[in-house]
Design brief:
With 119 residues, the chain is mainly beta. It is 0% helix and 66% strand. It contains no helices and 11 strands. Strands 2, 4, 5, 9, 10 and 11 form a 6-stranded mixed sheet that branches.
């Protein structure tokens, strides 16, 4: 079974930068697309940025998504952090897995990593 896990969250000062990682694990799988979401306190989850499985880097404003092939990870770099960037950041990966000859789609979420930006 494919799993993803986020890491890299923490407490940071406004104006700083942070790198979050989404690491996929499992056997015989390929990722078609990875998206990063965040859920601010008391609000709904919202998409931040994403990238197709074939991509290397994608930039959306202050958010850069980049692939680390060696670690099978998709990183989210956030620049010029603001207090409103505070929330739990989640990774969502979609793709295909070969299980005993059967190709199955997966759409999975990680447990999230907390980011707190203080002013």
């Amino acid at each position: 079974q494919v799993q993803v896990a986020e890491s890299g969250g923490g407490l940071v000062q406004a104006g700083g930068s942070l790198r979050l990682s989404c690491t996929a694990s499992g056997s015989s799988f390929s990722v078609d697309h990875t998206d990063w979401y965040r859920q601010p306190p008391g609000k709904q989850r919202e998409r931040v940025a994403g990238m197709p499985g074939s991509g290397v880097t994608s930039v959306t404003g202050r958010f850069t998504v980049c692939r680390d092939k060696a670690k099978n990870a998709v990183n989210l770099e956030i620049d010029s952090l603001k207090p409103e960037d505070t929330g739990v950041y989640y990774c969502n990966s979609r793709g295909l897995q070969n299980i005993r000859g059967a190709v199955i789609q997966f759409d999975i979420w990680g447990q999230g990593t907390q980011v707190t930006v203080c002013s």
